[in-house]
Amino acid sequence: MYRRYRLPTIWREMDQLQREMNRLMGYSSGKRPLSPLSFPAINIWTNEDEMILSAELPGMKVDDIDLNITADALVLIGKRSPQQLEEGARYHRRERNHGEFSRSIQLPFMVDPGKAKAVFKNGILEISLVRAEADKPKKIAVKAG
Amino acid sequence: MMKNKEKAMQVTDQELVENEELERTRERQCLVPKTDIYESDDMIVILADIPGVAQDALDITLDKHILAIDAYNTSSENKDFSITYSEYVPGDYHRKFRLAEEIDVDKIEAIVADGVLELRLPKAEEAKIKKIPIKAG
Predict the structure, then answer these.
(1) May I ask the CATH architecture of the domain B30-77+86-131?
(2) Minimal Cβ distance to A23: which of B12, B47, B86
(3) Which of A54, A112, B27, B103 has the greatest CB tally within 10 Å of its CB?
(4) Which residue stretches of chain A have pLDDT < 70?
(5) Phi, psi of A81 (to 5 degrees)
């Protein structure tokens, strides 16, 4: 059987803790958020049978986003075009990034790619995934002997 | 020529950072949106990334050269789910700028599309740099 988590639990937990600390320090009021190491920033929500993966993609159009889902990974490819300036215009401030990006995300459990749904709204891409039947934990009825 | 240059130098926008530690009444985090500002001959354009904010959840005020952008995140929590991996926190956005240029307040346009706010601030007539044609004598 394929094992997803190769790292010992303690390392995973420390990783999580560090991420949490970075998040708290970067996002505390008045400070600007830390730029995520990879673009776009993603969040993953899970429950027993489903998963929601969301990505912040402000300023992108549906046609600029390319999404590929396999049983255990998701690849997000896209391009953010720079603003077209009028003749003679000049920047005072430029903080927003543009260009191409590609991100592969290993999913926390196996999913059924055929049941994936994606919605793009207000610059947030939300992908709903359903756990593959074969990956679901089985309950075994215990019979009295 | 020199005068023109001096004038152009003044036209930079200043960001106002609030120092006073006011407590927020909303539970969500308050973030500083990434912003581009550019200037053309007749207007100043501000582009701010505000993913997760719907069109009707924005407050933009211009008071004595101080432009304030407040955007409220309306995305709902995913009920019955728990977060397993997190790189961003959905939050409200707030940022203030001091504009050096006179703005024609009545003609300000604000457009929100795909999580980006585009503010078009037309310069007031008197603030536009007039080109003076030179006639051959």
Answers:
(1) Sandwich (2.60)
(2) B86
(3) A54
(4) 1-8, 22-37
(5) -85, 145
